[in-house]
Amino acid sequence: MTVKEYNNSVEAYSDNIYRFVLKNIKDSERAKDVVQDTFEKVWKNHSDISCAKVKSYLFSTAYHTLIDSIRREKYKASWEDADANKYYTNESYSDVNEVLHEALDRLPPDQKNVILLRDYEGYSYQEIAEITNLSESQVKVYIFRGRQFLKQYIGKIEVLV
């Protein structure tokens, strides 16, 4: 990939990658860092990357960088800072979008990522498999299980509205 092609890929895909990462970690500054790290890794290997495969390569790199970031942050948290009351609620919600985001946050990371890639970003099962280094059948299983959880968690939509 040439420098011009790299710059074009930055312009074309940076917003999509940022949205994908932000949906996962809900912290705009960390999301920006992950996107920057992603493009830095791609730049270091730009001579080995085909222009036709740059989108898949970018999302794969972003996914792995995101996972690394989440793992690093996991070890920084302490139990003393956790508020047990925030994990329990008896409130009823009327904002479907808020309920959906809360439900997405309760999914395991792999299921959440494949659902976001499929339903929010519109990738095919095959593209998701390439991005996440999972088999296509495993992607389908994760999406099915994630959707089942979301359906069970949200319940009937009439109750929410």
What does this entry show, briefly?
This protein is an all-alpha fold and 161 residues long. It contains 8 helices and no strands.
Describe the model.
Pfam families: Sigma70_r2, Sigma70_r4_2. The chain is mainly α. The chain has two domains: 1-78, RNA polymerase sigma factor, region 2, helix turn helix motif (Rna Polymerase Sigma Factor, Chain: A); 94-154, Winged helix-like DNA-binding domain superfamily/Winged helix DNA-binding domain (Arc Repressor Mutant, subunit A, Orthogonal Bundle). It has helices at 3-25, 28-44, 54-74, 96-105, 109-120, 125-132, 136-154, 157-160. The mean pLDDT is 81.
SSE run: HHHHHHHH
CATH architecture of the largest domain: Orthogonal Bundle
Can you summarize the main beta sheet? none
| Average pLDDT | 81
Stretches with pLDDT under 50, minimum 5 residues: none
Q: Note the overall shape.
A: globular
Instruction: Write the CATH homologous superfamily of the largest domain.
Output: RNA polymerase sigma factor, region 2, helix turn helix motif
Residue share in β-strands: under 5%
How many E-type strands? Answer: 0
Please report the number of helical segments: 8
Distance between the termini: 50 Å
What's the CATH topology label of the largest domain? Answer: Rna Polymerase Sigma Factor, Chain: A
CATH C-level name of the largest domain: Mainly Alpha
